Automatic annotation (TrEMBL):
This is precorrin-2 dehydrogenase. It is an enzyme of class 1 (oxidoreductase). One of its GO terms (molecular function) is ferrochelatase activity. Its EC number is 1.3.1.76. Residues 196-229 form the Tetrapyrrole methylase domain. Pathway: Porphyrin-containing compound metabolism; siroheme biosynthesis; sirohydrochlorin from precorrin-2: step 1/1. PANTHER family: SIROHEME BIOSYNTHESIS PROTEIN MET8. GO terms for biological process: siroheme biosynthetic process. The keyword NAD applies. Residues 116-142 form the Siroheme synthase central domain. SUPFAM superfamilies: NAD(P)-binding Rossmann-fold domains (SSF51735), Siroheme synthase middle domains-like (SSF75615), Tetrapyrrole methylase (SSF53790). InterPro entries: 4pyrrol_Mease, 4pyrrol_Methylase_sf, 4pyrrole_Mease_sub1, Met8-like, NAD(P)-bd_dom_sf, Sirohaem_synthase_central, Sirohaem_synthase_N.
Length: 235
């Protein structure tokens, strides 16, 4: 059962600590920087890609004092003892902490995030299977097709005008409800106007051996691009 409280934390210009200097640490650092956090990285070995990021580097092992004045901690090391110490030190000070791939040593999880303008959707699997979370994020991306951010921007502009124009809460609510419906209908219409590209294999050349699905795609196509090997009966 998932009893997590979904929240979005404001960490802009807040000091955050990442312990670890490998690829996983790089991914977590990138997420923090995307939220405009001030990131400090502590690790005895730090990969080159991290050194190129706008972060503070401390090239040594973790020390308890590293979490002083820190708002959020992420441990991305392969040392179980270090990870446990980071978790305990953070818990004692009431600092949110995430030990990568160790749900029992996390006071919060970093979900898979889809980001488009001011739209930000995070998916959590309660630490059970982050890979499935990434699949769901990519599915959301495919559904949105980059249209949701612009729709929200337009709605935000309209909302400001409504707030200044209408007086009662119910009036504002009803007008915004209709505007959101109009935007969603518009997104659906744009999506319908977008074409699809299907690749159909013609098999060994015999037109009778093409699949029923492939034949249907050819029959319903508006445009067909083919090479010289296709049998003329198929087109």
């Amino acid at each position: 059962m998932n009893n997590l409280l979904p929240v979005f934390m404001k960490i802009e210009n807040n000091n955050c600590l990442v312990v670890g200097g490998g690829e996983i640490a790089f991914q977590k650092i990138y997420q923090l920087l995307d939220s405009n956090a001030q990131v400090t990285v502590v690790a005895p070995e730090i990969k080159k890609s991290i050194k190129l990021l706008p972060v503070k580097l401390i090239n040594r092992k973790y020390r308890r004092g590293d979490i002083e004045n820190i708002k959020l901690v992420i441990a991305a090391t392969n040392d179980a003892t270090v990870n446990n110490n980071i978790y305990k030190d953070s818990q004692k000070r009431g600092i949110p902490v995430n030990v990568v791939d160790q749900p029992d040593l996390c006071s919060f999880y970093m979900g898979s995030v889809y980001h488009d303008g001011d739209v930000k959707i995070a998916v959590s699997t309660n630490g059970k299977c982050p890979s499935f979370g990434r699949f769901l994020r990519d599915h959301i991306k495919n559904i949105s097709k980059g249209l949701w951010g612009k729709a929200l921007k337009d709605l935000a502009t309209q909302r400001e005008k409504i707030i200044q124009t209408l007086s009662t809460y119910l009036e504002k609510k009803e007008v915004m409800k209709q505007l959101v419906k109009n935007q969603s209908d518009n997104i659906i219409q744009i999506d319908k106007r977008r074409g699809k590209v299907l690749l159909v294999g013609a098999g060994p050349g015999d037109p009778e051996l093409i699949t029923a699905k492939g034949l249907k795609a050819i029959q319903n196509a508006d445009v067909i691009v083919h090479d010289a090997l296709i049998h003329p009966h198929l087109v």
